[in-house]
Amino acid sequence: MTQFSNPLARWNERFSTVNYLFGEKPNQYLAGKTALLQKGKALSIADGEGRNSVWLASQGFDVDAFDFSPVAIEKAKKLANKQQVSVNIHCSDWESFDWKAEHYDTIAGIFFQFADPGPRTELFENLNFALKPGGTLIIQGYGKDQMHYKTGGPGILENLYDEALLITSFKDYKVLDLQT
Question: What was the pLDDT predicted at 12?
Fold first, then answer.
Protein backbone atom coordinates (compact mmCIF):
# COMPACT_ATOMS: atom_id res chain seq x y z
CA MET A 1 0.00 0.00 0.00
CA THR A 2 1.54 3.32 -1.06
CA GLN A 3 1.16 6.67 0.61
CA PHE A 4 -1.23 7.56 -2.21
CA SER A 5 -3.75 4.79 -1.45
CA ASN A 6 -6.09 7.36 0.17
CA PRO A 7 -4.71 10.73 -0.91
CA LEU A 8 -7.72 12.83 0.10
CA ALA A 9 -7.64 11.57 3.68
CA ARG A 10 -3.87 12.00 3.80
CA TRP A 11 -3.95 15.63 2.58
CA ASN A 12 -7.00 16.58 4.65
CA GLU A 13 -5.13 15.34 7.71
CA ARG A 14 -1.94 17.20 6.74
CA PHE A 15 -3.85 20.44 6.14
CA SER A 16 -5.83 20.11 9.40
CA THR A 17 -3.49 22.29 11.40
CA VAL A 18 -3.87 25.87 12.56
CA ASN A 19 -0.70 26.88 10.73
CA TYR A 20 -0.17 26.72 7.00
CA LEU A 21 1.68 23.52 6.12
CA PHE A 22 3.93 25.23 3.55
CA GLY A 23 3.59 28.74 4.94
CA GLU A 24 1.69 31.75 3.66
CA LYS A 25 4.38 33.03 1.31
CA PRO A 26 4.50 31.84 -2.30
CA ASN A 27 6.78 29.13 -3.52
CA GLN A 28 10.22 30.70 -3.87
CA TYR A 29 10.79 29.46 -7.42
CA LEU A 30 7.42 30.79 -8.60
CA ALA A 31 7.97 34.18 -6.96
CA GLY A 32 11.43 34.40 -8.50
CA LYS A 33 10.03 33.99 -12.01
CA THR A 34 7.66 36.97 -11.95
CA ALA A 35 9.25 38.49 -15.05
CA LEU A 36 8.49 35.34 -17.08
CA LEU A 37 4.80 35.15 -16.17
CA GLN A 38 2.22 36.38 -18.66
CA LYS A 39 -0.14 38.84 -16.95
CA GLY A 40 -3.83 38.20 -17.25
CA LYS A 41 -5.70 35.04 -16.32
CA ALA A 42 -3.75 32.54 -14.19
CA LEU A 43 -4.41 29.04 -12.93
CA SER A 44 -2.75 27.45 -9.92
CA ILE A 45 -3.25 23.69 -9.93
CA ALA A 46 -3.27 21.48 -6.83
CA ASP A 47 -2.99 24.76 -4.96
CA GLY A 48 -3.33 23.42 -1.42
CA GLU A 49 -3.81 26.16 1.16
CA GLY A 50 -3.57 28.92 -1.44
CA ARG A 51 -0.14 30.44 -0.95
CA ASN A 52 0.59 30.52 -4.69
CA SER A 53 -2.84 31.55 -5.96
CA VAL A 54 -3.10 34.30 -3.34
CA TRP A 55 0.34 35.59 -4.29
CA LEU A 56 -0.56 35.54 -8.01
CA ALA A 57 -3.70 37.55 -7.21
CA SER A 58 -1.61 40.04 -5.24
CA GLN A 59 0.53 40.47 -8.35
CA GLY A 60 -2.49 41.55 -10.39
CA PHE A 61 -3.51 38.25 -11.97
CA ASP A 62 -7.13 37.16 -12.32
CA VAL A 63 -6.68 33.78 -10.62
CA ASP A 64 -8.44 30.45 -10.69
CA ALA A 65 -7.15 27.71 -8.42
CA PHE A 66 -8.16 24.21 -7.48
CA ASP A 67 -7.33 21.57 -4.96
CA PHE A 68 -9.22 18.43 -4.02
CA SER A 69 -8.94 18.94 -0.27
CA PRO A 70 -11.88 20.84 1.24
CA VAL A 71 -9.73 21.48 4.31
CA ALA A 72 -7.10 23.18 2.14
CA ILE A 73 -9.76 25.13 0.23
CA GLU A 74 -11.14 26.66 3.44
CA LYS A 75 -7.63 27.72 4.47
CA ALA A 76 -6.98 29.16 1.00
CA LYS A 77 -10.15 31.24 1.25
CA LYS A 78 -9.06 32.54 4.66
CA LEU A 79 -5.62 33.43 3.29
CA ALA A 80 -7.13 35.28 0.33
CA ASN A 81 -9.41 37.18 2.69
CA LYS A 82 -6.49 38.01 4.99
CA GLN A 83 -4.45 39.28 2.02
CA GLN A 84 -7.52 41.13 0.66
CA VAL A 85 -7.36 39.53 -2.78
CA SER A 86 -9.86 37.64 -4.84
CA VAL A 87 -9.17 34.09 -6.02
CA ASN A 88 -11.70 31.85 -7.75
CA ILE A 89 -11.00 28.76 -5.66
CA HIS A 90 -12.53 25.44 -6.67
CA CYS A 91 -12.68 22.24 -4.65
CA SER A 92 -11.91 19.81 -7.43
CA ASP A 93 -9.48 17.17 -8.47
CA TRP A 94 -7.71 17.64 -11.79
CA GLU A 95 -9.94 15.13 -13.54
CA SER A 96 -13.13 17.02 -12.62
CA PHE A 97 -11.78 20.54 -13.09
CA ASP A 98 -13.44 22.53 -15.91
CA TRP A 99 -10.48 22.83 -18.30
CA LYS A 100 -11.22 25.56 -20.84
CA ALA A 101 -9.43 25.75 -24.18
CA GLU A 102 -6.72 28.42 -24.41
CA HIS A 103 -8.08 30.16 -21.32
CA TYR A 104 -5.02 30.95 -19.20
CA ASP A 105 -2.08 33.27 -19.79
CA THR A 106 -0.12 31.60 -16.96
CA ILE A 107 -0.47 28.19 -15.38
CA ALA A 108 1.49 27.33 -12.25
CA GLY A 109 1.98 23.75 -11.13
CA ILE A 110 4.13 23.53 -8.05
CA PHE A 111 4.92 20.03 -6.69
CA PHE A 112 1.86 18.25 -8.08
CA GLN A 113 3.44 14.83 -8.50
CA PHE A 114 0.52 12.66 -7.49
CA ALA A 115 -0.03 11.18 -10.97
CA ASP A 116 1.79 8.19 -12.37
CA PRO A 117 2.75 8.19 -16.09
CA GLY A 118 -0.67 7.33 -17.58
CA PRO A 119 -2.76 9.94 -15.76
CA ARG A 120 0.16 12.40 -15.84
CA THR A 121 0.07 12.33 -19.65
CA GLU A 122 -3.61 13.29 -19.55
CA LEU A 123 -2.95 15.98 -16.93
CA PHE A 124 -0.14 17.48 -19.02
CA GLU A 125 -2.47 17.42 -22.07
CA ASN A 126 -5.01 19.41 -20.02
CA LEU A 127 -2.32 21.97 -19.20
CA ASN A 128 -1.49 22.28 -22.90
CA PHE A 129 -5.19 22.57 -23.77
CA ALA A 130 -5.86 25.31 -21.21
CA LEU A 131 -2.80 27.50 -21.84
CA LYS A 132 -3.16 30.30 -24.37
CA PRO A 133 -0.66 30.40 -27.25
CA GLY A 134 2.32 32.42 -26.02
CA GLY A 135 1.33 31.81 -22.40
CA THR A 136 3.66 30.68 -19.64
CA LEU A 137 3.60 27.30 -17.98
CA ILE A 138 5.69 27.03 -14.84
CA ILE A 139 6.26 23.62 -13.29
CA GLN A 140 8.37 22.81 -10.29
CA GLY A 141 8.72 19.29 -9.03
CA TYR A 142 11.03 16.72 -7.61
CA GLY A 143 13.60 15.10 -9.88
CA LYS A 144 14.52 11.44 -9.85
CA ASP A 145 17.50 12.03 -7.52
CA GLN A 146 14.94 12.82 -4.81
CA MET A 147 14.66 9.06 -4.23
CA HIS A 148 18.17 9.18 -2.72
CA TYR A 149 17.54 12.25 -0.54
CA LYS A 150 14.22 11.09 0.96
CA THR A 151 13.41 14.59 2.17
CA GLY A 152 9.96 14.89 0.62
CA GLY A 153 7.98 14.23 -2.50
CA PRO A 154 5.93 11.24 -3.54
CA GLY A 155 8.62 8.62 -2.97
CA ILE A 156 7.51 6.91 -6.17
CA LEU A 157 10.14 6.96 -8.91
CA GLU A 158 7.71 6.98 -11.83
CA ASN A 159 6.02 10.12 -10.46
CA LEU A 160 9.25 12.13 -10.47
CA TYR A 161 10.36 14.41 -13.30
CA ASP A 162 13.45 14.72 -15.40
CA GLU A 163 14.34 17.18 -18.13
CA ALA A 164 13.58 14.70 -20.94
CA LEU A 165 10.06 14.10 -19.62
CA LEU A 166 9.28 17.80 -19.49
CA ILE A 167 10.80 18.57 -22.88
CA THR A 168 8.90 15.74 -24.60
CA SER A 169 5.65 16.52 -22.76
CA PHE A 170 5.77 20.18 -23.79
CA LYS A 171 7.66 19.82 -27.08
CA ASP A 172 6.13 22.83 -28.83
CA TYR A 173 7.06 25.19 -26.02
CA LYS A 174 9.86 27.73 -25.97
CA VAL A 175 11.86 26.80 -22.89
CA LEU A 176 12.61 29.91 -20.81
CA ASP A 177 14.12 28.12 -17.81
CA LEU A 178 14.90 24.45 -17.20
CA GLN A 179 16.82 23.43 -14.11
CA THR A 180 17.54 20.19 -12.34
Answer: 85
